[in-house]
What we know:
The chain has helices at residues 12-22, 44-57, 68-79, 89-99, 102-113, 149-153, 157-164; strands at residues 2-5, 30-33, 62-64, 118-120, 125-127, 169-171, 180-181, 185-187, 195-196, 199-200, 203-207, 212-217, 222-227, 229-230. The longest helix has 14 residues, at 44-57. It has a six-stranded mixed sheet with strand order 3-2-1-11-12-13, with helices on one face. It has a four-stranded mixed sheet with strand order 4-5-6-8, with no helix packed on it. It is of the alpha/beta class and 231 residues long.
Amino acid sequence: MKFFISDIHGEIDGLEMLLGHAEIDFTKDQLILGGDYINRGKDSGKVIRRVRELTEAYPNNVIALIGNHEEMMWEYFRKGDTLWHSHGGRETLKDFENSFSESEMEEYIEWVRNLPLVYKDDMFVYTHAGLNPFEPIEKQSREILWMSEFDFYSISKDSLFNLTKSKPVVHGHTPVERIYYDGTRLNCDLGSNTYVIEEERGLGLVNLTEMTYLVYRQSQKKVEKREIIRF
Length: 231
């Protein structure tokens, strides 16, 4: 089985509940995590710790990618860029100080910085937000972490498939209400810990083998199973 989850945003309870409901066998199944583990939610430290534990325990089957929120955090620690503060960084920093020793925090930040931008297997290409069709997969620049859904979905199918060797791209970054699959791209960000017009979004775990997904609602603390909509 292949699974993908992205934009967890500090939601450790939802992450653990989704992994439990999916009954993932980490010795056999594949789990790709698409970045944005921190900010917004209250447990960024716990999420980062759990993600790292999984990647180290199952290095062949669990792959973690970097997201733009991790990139903002790195830029804050590297050169004091305060953009991170306006996207939940202040709260995340306090949580990190409570979750890690000073040396641990430095270690985790360095670990996050070195996570890959892109991963590919025999069926899909995975990234946080999108891909630049003019750059080889292996040489994508860090600007793709910020790519808007409009820009990514403006790329023609032929151009994208020429880049990926006809493999669809699985990603997150831009919250959606439902998960759709157009045969070329699959956006899996359901907006964990965000509210849009007073409507709570959720955290989604996608089963790419069955083309279904589980969604965790923070306020209800329950998991629903849904079919991916194809068109």
